[in-house]
Amino acid sequence: MCGITAYIGAKDATPIILDSLRKLEYRGYDSAGIAVINGKEIFVQKSEGGLDRLCESLPKSIPGTIGIGHTRWATHGPPSKLNAHPHISGDIAVVHNGIIENFESLKGQLIEDGYEFISETDTEVLAHLINQNYKGDIEAAVRDSLEYVDGSYAIAVICKSEPGRLIIARKDSPLVIGVGEGENFIASDIPAIVNYSRDVIYMDDGEIASVGRDGIKIKTFDGEVVDKGVHTIDWDVNAAEKAGYEHFMLKEIHEQPDVIRNTIAGRLSELEGSVQLQEVGLSNDEISRLSKIRIIACGTSYHAGLLSKYLFENLSRIPTEVDTASEFRYSNAILDRDTLVLAITQSGETADTLAALKAAKSRGYKTFAITNVVGSSISRSADDVLYTRAGSEIGVAATKTFTAQLIAVYLLSIYFGKIRKTIDFEVIKLLISRIKQLPKQVQMVIENSQTIQLYSKIFSEASKFFFIGRSYDYPIALEGALKLKEISYLSAEGYPAGELKHGPLALLEHGMPVIAIATKGRTYDKMLSNIKEVKARDAYVLAIASDEDIEIEKYVDEVMRVPETIELLSPVLSAVVTQLFAYYCAKERGCEIDKPRNLAKSVTVE
Hints:
Elements: E1 3-8, H1 13-23, E2 31-38, E3 41-48, H2 51-57, E4 66-72, E5 87-89, E6 92-100, H3 103-112, H4 123-133, H5 138-146, E7 151-159, E8 166-171, E9 176-179, E10 184-187, E11 199-202, E12 207-211, E13 216-220, E14 231-232, H6 248-254, H7 256-264, E15 268-269, E16 274-275, H8 284-289, E17 292-297, H9 299-316, E18 320-324, H10 325-328, E19 339-345, H11 351-362, E20 366-371, H12 377-381, E21 384-387, H13 400-419, H14 425-447, H15 450-459, E22 464-469, H16 474-488, E23 491-496, E24 513-517, H17 524-536, E25 540-546, E26 558-562, H18 570-588
Parallel strand pairs: 17-18, 17-19, 19-20, 20-21, 22-23, 22-24, 24-25, 25-26
Antiparallel strand pairs: 1-4, 1-10, 2-3, 2-4, 5-6, 6-7, 7-8, 8-12, 9-10, 9-11, 11-14, 12-13, 15-16
Helix pairs in contact: 3-4, 4-5, 7-13, 7-14, 9-13, 9-16, 14-18, 15-18, 16-18
């Protein structure tokens, strides 16, 4: 979602803030702005659109060594210069991520008190509220103002009367401090500041910090001093560069063989027939007693959760349910003390998933998270965390992080299955052996993508698509349709192939492309029957099938091939095909692939 950056030090703040905002573009935004204390005044410039437009509107030189910046993704009020952040009230400038849920009532009271509003945003309420409470101490004003606020926020505040410090606070939205020598950096996410500092402090919920050039003082909202540890980031600074690829998404698709290797590194022993997950804090007795797994996730992670259901039930023999986190939060779910609540989230900051996990934890249930981001909110909230080790993903459409999530669930389901004695030793060894082959097989799919590119070009102007699959392939049908929608803006729907007769067949017409994921497995013959139903309606069937399957050609129009593997692992290879298909369709249509319209990388508000 929105991105926050801030700087205080001895250097000109503007170029640092703008550069940091560039690193947050992957989050998605529709407007941008900065505020810098320029002598005794606050210089503010805002613009609708991209950072280039903001930069073009700026003077060549903006003296000032303290400032804040923001990229906005519209929630309250449409994209516009007036609605862009920072928001100003008197001597105070504010940038804000999140949602102030009671802003209407606060706004009404502030209007009665004589404040005038020029935007439609909830954030302007916060600026006026802080100004109203300011009595010479900006930290106290922020703390007093936040007592009236319901909702989520990460904020950075500067005051021209106190140019030696900036104030930040957090509740349910990410915020980190980059620690420097004689300077400090603030951002929503580590990529924004990793070029400037590798030593970071993670702000936690209910904390407020006063940040100066040479000092950082963090307190709770109650005023209690908090002694925070400094974490050193070992990310590769060049990880966020395109490395010669036309788009980040294509680069990240190509990185998947290495991502799989990283995710399994040190965790598999083929000789011993074991998965070694030191991150799992559950005892063997607790794992053996598990009566249910309840998965909560959103978007692509939800599709990873759907495949997880098949894996946990087949390998670990644990009944598993999957919920979209936004629905779970309000469902009054029925759980028992031996239920494990598993959150899957790439960023670790997805608002609904985080809130759902916190709700489950507050009721005393065991919680577990699969995430990609060390130090993220969910990694600090869950009882146990399994990191996917996918590295920074810049493209809004998830690719390598989805694959990493699948691998993590394979490992966890095998780990549980061995402890629960639901998998034979030889089966575990086979699974481990085949998982280790996946990097090479994914590389083969990528290197032989010419056929995928050809069909993408042919069908890039189709009006709508169907993706169908059964069993393990069904979640990939949903994910394939989502990828196509996200970046090419084509209408696409995923269905269980066995449900076609219950309505979807009515939508089929001459020449409509249907992507049929038809890898070999227990439902293969049923899938062929479903394909025949589709062909009988004169649709065009493009199948995803294994190299060794020659029978499939009798029933479909064209085939995109994947290497042969066991049924449980074929979804990984099929997913890569659907990613490439979506990418090349979007490229053919001239779409903004890395930053699709109306979407953001990390959804940190409801």
